[in-house]
Amino acid sequence: MESISVGVDIGSAAIKVVVLSGRGQLMHSAYVPHHYRVRETLRILWRQLMAKVSEGALHLAFTGKGAAEFSSALQIPFVDEVQAETEALRRFHPEVDVAVSLGGEDARMMYFERNGEMDLRTNRKCAGGTGTFLAHMAAFFGVDIQALNALAENGIHLYPIASRCGVYAKTDIQALMNQGVGKADLAASIFQAVVNQALSDLAKGRPIQGKLALLGGPLAFMPELRRCFLQTIGISSAEVLPVTHGELYCAWGAALLGREAAPIAWQDVKRLLDQDHLQEVAAERLEPLFPDMAAYDSFRCYYQRFRLPRRPMPQPPARLWLGMDAGSTTIKLVLVDEEGRICYEDYRKNEADALETAKTMLLAMYKALPAGISIAASGITGYGEAFLKQAFQIDTGEVETVAHLQGARFFCPEVTDLLDIGGQDMKYIRVRKGSIQKIVLNDSCASGCGLFLETFAESMGLSMDEFVKKAVHAPYCLDLGHHCTVLMNSKVHQVQNENVDTGGLISGLCLSVVKNALYRVMRLDSIEELGSHIVVEGGTFQNDAVLRSFETLVGHPVVRPNGSGIMGAYGMALLTKKRMPEAARSKMLSADEIRKLSVREESSRCPGCGNHCLLQKKTFSNGHCFIVGNRCSYGERLLAKEHFVSRKVPNLYEWEKNQLLQSSKVNPSAEKTMGIPAVLGRWEDMIYWKVFWQTLGYRVILSAFDAASLGKSTVTMPHGIYCYPCRLAHGHLMYFLEQCKPDGIWMPVISGGKEEPDIDEATHAAYGDVLAEQMKEQISAAGIPFYHPQISFCDHQSLLAFMKENFPQVTPYALRRATTAAEKAQRGYKARLGKKTRDVLEWIEREKKNALVLVGRSYQLDPEINKGIPAVMAGLGIPVLSAEGLYLLQNEGHDTPTFREKALFTAEMVCTNPYLHFVQLQSTSCGWDMTTIDALQKRLERAGKRYTMISLDQGVSTGALQIRIRSLMAEIQEKQNRLY
């Protein structure tokens, strides 16, 4: 009887099975998602397999991320997944040069050397560029993987989305959705983000050349992802190997290698799978959330006492006030009467289309209103505030932290702590003696929010009601710790194959959400820091398992209103009534106007600075419009002239940027061009080098951000470089090499001038050498000289020596003339900045206006890096100054201060001026100088000032940033009201 070889690949998301005949022919295969129920899924698969093929000597081998424990417990051979995949590749495609494999949460790239060796690169702990992330995105859109692929095929515009981390990407996507960006464009942008993540994490600077094999489920099942991958790396379809069943290669390789294993009976495998052979879970088992049903009933009874004031719809005539909360994943709507009682409420998921969901809700509200009852005034808060306020002409808006606190104070006037956990965002407000003392928001990471739990519920194939039910009835609670989403996924994988109760795992996840809130977001050192009257809000706290976990950790019951999910909308309705108590009728669109409301979209590139932001003008049928994609006020002024309202407050960050990027003087006789990448340290000496080369007779060209160039350059990015400004430098150089093509590119390595530069300053100063090495093939192919000499500003000898060797036609006199002109221009710029800063300080004190001082690196003047934060601040009516300008007021002779020197000097200035407030910009994954941060925090706290840090990443989301900025200003205003 012919022997049969079976390979089983237990991956992070699915189980794959391949059955081969004795002659190596494929007899049967299966690809089944396991939804974290690995043992159960494997048992079902084995029974199905036995029904089809159960005769002949069985040779069995396991492989994959989740197979090690099974293999050990069942005493069945285990094959490393890379070894298995390589075996299948070499069997079917021995000519392969490079293979890319994307799985559920794993990604790897294999370079096959001519000497038979293999260079293996695997992803880090982040699962942003893998199949699970795409599955979560599909669920986020309410579609399956195939539908997500179809959407991406129809995408036209690509938006930058943070590909460094899957959770950061979700934040960007949600913000774009709330601004009305279409699903097709979002899907295409998601695919591009996955490709960028995979390439930058795997290639690590090594080119992809020769015959390419694309493996794994995502690349097998999503043709558009495959096309995007090939387009980004610039490889022709002729170089792509015709792989069949690329999603099964690990299982196939295991089946091939398992032929040498000792045979085992089919029934023996079934019997082993039906038994509990697996070891007990390593995670600590805690007491259950509820010991019995009586305890749960008592818990529910206690929290029924916290009821929001409600009443039926009043009899006409009557006036009602509307509050809406356009959150990250849901929209809430509330109508209140003159006494603050809720007469009507609605709560719906936005289904990735905030505008249509809001239209449906408002029309339903109008239908429920009896004749003679009017909406006196309307207000809105939340992520979608700006877009929906413009669309429906809502009367007023407010930052969500203030709206939530208003609702909490009405319900519990003595509130000391407010914690709101929504779909993707989390807010903590500390109140002491009736005034805001502290506001904290999560920085992009959603690991402790509702979407975090929803994602796990979907992965387990459970509805949220089923998910919560299993948690509250679990026999124990697993202590999973508190981690970011990716690390929590890894923790779940660690226990998913072990003998644990599903409810125990789920209750552990709910507990981890609360621990994340307390120790990662609220940053508590001790529970004793909390006050005695804690109010919890947000849809996540409607989950009884989360509420019980919080109650257990803080040691006493808290206050959860029975409408915790609508508290933002309720607070907004109360604020609207407070602001417009005498209003008769809101200017908000009527029901007929809402039915007729439609939106027309136009796209264009902003001609302002070199970033050329992709702007989308959304013109509503009522004539109003909304601009998406602009990172400064220029785009809005350009496309929405009739609606643009200038706040007319100083913005020195934008002034500095414009001064540095202003068009170079064109020499009519200039025959050659010199390109200067507008990246990293070049922002410090940009004026110097522009004038230097112009004086030598060159036309100077500054590089610009280009998404396509950045995508193509990802394969040149070295291992360990995750700092977005550094990665951006590769894209700017690619832009010069492929599009602009100047006669030369100038990226000197500057040394000297700074005493004890920090690690960021040292890395960035030498990055010209990194680019020269990592992109040498692209530079050579373009045939454009890339100049990256070692230059010291302490003297001109190194520059003179380099110019003499490489530009012998330039005379010593011309060089002296060029350096003199460059130094004069640099001094002139600094003098203008110092004077401008002094004028703004005088204006601030005269107007008694609170202002924000941005403390960052020079390259954070780039709107692509700062995400338009200065423009957001100015748009909110907040004057913006820079640390560079303040430093120049008293240190004009010190040309090159270190970041630490500038930051500490700025903190001193802020501490002595009641109108100045400190905000540090920090690019994520760049060096964090914790010593400096600690010194800044202590100095500012001694003066009663707040230290605020805003983390910047690759994405375009400014919604969360606006919330932080507006919350900061609300906190500052409350403190000043208390003091003065």
Strand content is 15-25%
CATH class of the domain at 98-242: Alpha Beta
Total DSSP E strands:
32
Please state the second-level CATH architecture of the domain at 98-242.
2-Layer Sandwich
CATH superfamily membership of the domain at 98-242: ATPase, nucleotide binding domain
* Category by helix and strand content: alpha/beta
* Count of separate DSSP helical elements: 38
Largest sheet: 5 strands, mixed
Strand order of the largest sheet: 12-11-10-13-14
Given as residue ranges, the uncertain stretches (5+ residues, pLDDT < 50) are 641-646
Give the CATH topology of the domain at 98-242. Nucleotidyltransferase, domain 5
What general form does the structure show?
globular
**End-to-end distance, in Å?**
94 Å
Task: Tell me the Rg in angstroms.
Answer: 30 Å
**Helical fraction:** 40-55%
Please state the average pLDDT score. 82
